[in-house]
Give the backbone structure.
Amino acid sequence: MAMDETLYQLDLQADVAASLREAEGIAKVKLTDNQLDKIKTIEQQEMALWRAGHQRKLPQTSDEADSELIPALSKNERILEVLTAGQRIAWQQLTGPPLAGIQR
């Protein structure tokens, strides 16, 4: 794999929301308006947490996940859950295999 392609895929994987706002991401993954709205809501929730000064921490148990204001899943993980199985395949084809070192 060429270095340019690897860097491009790394960029896509690092910020799923930004990648799916781009025309190429929307077209290749075939996002619906409803999915775009859900992604926008996830981004707004994440921004609200950031503005409130919350420090991200993962819940230790599922009970904590239900009671915490901070989501158990990262923004990228929550966005990828919005995709259908077919869209996840298209996303994987666009981004390649997950690259080591990508943080949640």
